[in-house]
Amino acid sequence: MGERTEVRVVIVGTGFSGLGMAIGLKKAGIDDFVVLEKANDVGGTWRDNSYPGCACDIQSHMYSFSFDQNPNWTRSFPTQPEIWDYLRRVSARHDLGRHIRFGVELTGARWESDEQRWHVQTRSGAEFVAQFVVSGVGALHIPNVPTLPGIESFAGETFHSASWNHDYDLRGKRVAVVGTGASAIQFVPRIAGQVRQLHLYQRTAPWIMPKPDHPMPGWVRTLFTLFPPAQRTYRNLIYWLLEARALGFNGHPRLLQAAELLAKRMAAKQIDDPQLRRKVTPDYRMGCKRVLVSNDYYPALNRDNVEVITEGVREIREHSVIAADGSEREVDAIIFGTGFHVTDAFDHLDLIGRDGRNLAKEWATEGMRTHYGITVAGFPNLFFLLGPNTGLGHNSVIFMIESQIRYVVDAIRLVDASRAKALEVRADVQERFNTDIQRQLVRGVWTQGGCRSWYLDAKGVNRTIWPGFTWRYWLDTRKVRPADFELTVRNDRTGADGADSRVSA
Ligand SMILES: Cc1cc2nc3c(=O)[nH]c(=O)nc-3n(C[C@H](O)[C@H](O)[C@H](O)COP(=O)(O)OP(=O)(O)OC[C@H]3O[C@@H](n4cnc5c(N)ncnc54)[C@H](O)[C@@H]3O)c2cc1C
Description:
Layout: E1 4-12, H1 16-27, E2 33-37, H2 45-48, H3 80-93, E3 100-102, E4 106-112, E5 117-122, E6 127-135, E7 142-143, E8 157-160, E9 174-178, H4 184-192, E10 197-201, E11 208-209, H5 218-226, H6 228-243, H7 245-249, H8 253-270, H9 274-279, E12 292-293, H10 297-301, E13 306-309, E14 313-316, E15 320-323, E16 328-330, E17 333-336, E18 340-341, E19 350-352, H11 359-366, E20 382-384, H12 397-417, E21 420-425, H13 427-443, H14 445-448, H15 470-476, E22 485-489, E23 501-504
Parallel strand pairs: 1-2, 1-6, 2-3, 4-19, 6-20, 8-17, 9-10, 9-17, 10-13, 11-12
Antiparallel strand pairs: 4-5, 5-6, 7-18, 14-15, 15-16, 21-22, 22-23
């Protein structure tokens, strides 16, 4: 039996979600919490993904906390080292270190109804007993490595972009890259000039737009430092420009057609060979899969040592990759740019709610269903940050995370103000929310656009994206609506003894 710690709140993860939540609790005067982090540093996505060229496709001044703005971003779009550095400084500035338990991995949690507490289990055996649990485990965190036939016989080097092997010298090597998603289009241009030969296996061509990236001029950084309202105005401008993109994704395909023309024009300018251009031109509507931005991906494909293969990978042999058409290419290394487990990301967590309900099993059979991506019926006092249907294709998810943090704090306040022990979203409210959101998603480009993306679960249902405007989400989650919840109160309030009872809030 490991060590046992009692706390008010357990937060899991130290990416934007976990760190932001910790700051939110402190601001609300709640100091009795721990943050569990399985790695040995803060940063989440921006700690793990250190592949060459890793950067964000949302502008720096928007991809950061509204309450902790950085006037000194060096570029309009931040690179991975700079975001990681930002998160470490945020953690230090808010003195979060004393709350964080590094090297502690959550494996599961069980709601004990008689105690009205979560018993949180970790890989090391240490147990945390808490009234509230907040998950910030990340939506794109568990690398998805395809099980290719014969991969175990491969004698060379293999790794996924999220766990880049910096000790492996790519210079002069023959390399296969599998996947052409957001990560691959960033690292391919960086390694194309180093390797002897790069074979790029593409299943679906992504839509790629120009990236309006530039260094932030010194005078702008000085202005933002001396006069913070100027930075806030700049941020607001970016917010509304990005927000306008939601129109295209939600039933206004003409806007997407205009953007497609822009993307095609860039491809025409940057790719010399018409056959290659055809190969990398998508055959579905822009926005159906995540729209990518890059100025150097197409020029990298132009290189003599780079080849795009559109037949899928059939098999791996000791020294080679065999494509679906039977063609064989000898390689020294295989790099997977194959993304992450998304709609099945919670399968490995053993979360047991009220009456023994198993979250992974429920979500596997019924799909990931929540209320605003934050609370789940049957799982009292459990909150998700960046949970199902709160991801975005058009704006900064940090905005969503901040809305969720405020909502969680409000929910805890409601429990306290009602002198209750627990709060649980009503099943009918959750059902209504999901029906409504799926009705909107069906009209959107993710369903109508003619592609199959990682936004969809195994049954083809979109459990990832928030359809519509983020200001709408902000407005809807500004305050917890007590009528949406049932509270568990102590019976001694009513003079009775024995079990607690669930009442409408
Ligand atoms: C390569 C890459 C590029 C991206 N680019 C963009 C972009 O351009 N724009 C954009 O909006 N979004 C982008 N994203 C999405 C990005 O993940 C989010 O924007 C944001 O960083 C999510 O923050 P988070 O804190 O919710 O999750 P994460 O940053 O994933 O943090 C989760 C944390 O939880 C920890 N953790 C997980 N499971 C456990 C456990 N069981 N026990 C203990 N600790 C655990 C992890 O170690 C990690 O530190 C990108 C993601 C990736 C992977």
